[in-house]
């Protein structure tokens, strides 16, 4: 299993590991302290660094290789900050929005950002369907989400938040081929194209790939549909 000291070597493209690595370690300690009242993960022990921190950084690495500039990033369903708050630690010049519908977790995210001194982090305590019709619509060069849901559902949450020409980066496991095969209508409706699918490096995950979609035109105004509908009736 992975330990903290391996992260700088795995991600040499992220400068100032002397800054971001202590931030990530402190984030982990703060999450542990918060666990009695706000639980955000079931992953414990040796897998914790790999599953949450290395995988979050790998999503970012793959995304930035495809599109090196990201001035605004939006993470949908941030939970305890994976991957959005982790990304904010290594991208101090990027405005990072964490969209989290559960008020308890949103408050935790806000307190984490303040404790870590991350002035580039903003927390939006709303459902993704509401965020997609608000100030973040068409705003981000990069949108991420680790939500466990089919692509046709996640794309409706994330695509409205991406700027035209922006990327949507979604980590997916073994169900990816089936999900891609059924996501054609969602891609067409939401004006997105599959750009590439890149497996994570084996040292980080042997089963997860990052799927990158490009938003090629403005999202039609009727999307996202009202809360709950994307889950009940995916495109």
Outline the secondary-structure elements.
Elements: H1 7-10, H2 17-34, H3 47-66, E1 72-76, H4 84-90, E2 95-99, H5 103-115, E3 121-124, H6 128-131, E4 140-145, H7 151-158, E5 162-172, H8 176-181, H9 184-189, E6 192-199, E7 209-215, H10 229-232
Parallel strand pairs: 1-2, 1-4, 2-3, 4-5
Antiparallel strand pairs: 5-7, 6-7
Structure description:
The chain has 235 residues and is an alpha/beta fold. It has one domain: 3-Layer(aba) Sandwich (Rossmann fold), CATH 3.40.50. The chain is built from 10 helices and 7 strands. It has a 7-stranded mixed β-sheet with strand order 3-2-1-4-5-7-6, with helices on both faces. Strand 1 (72-76), helix 4 and strand 2 (95-99) form a beta-alpha-beta unit. 42% of the residues are buried.
Which blocks of ≥5 consecutive residues have pLDDT under 50?
A: none
Spatial order of the strands forming the largest sheet: 3-2-1-4-5-7-6
Would you identify the CATH H-level superfamily?
Vaccinia Virus protein VP39
Mind telling me the CATH class?
A: Alpha Beta
The total number of structural domains is: 1
Based on Cα principal axes, name the global outline.
Answer: globular
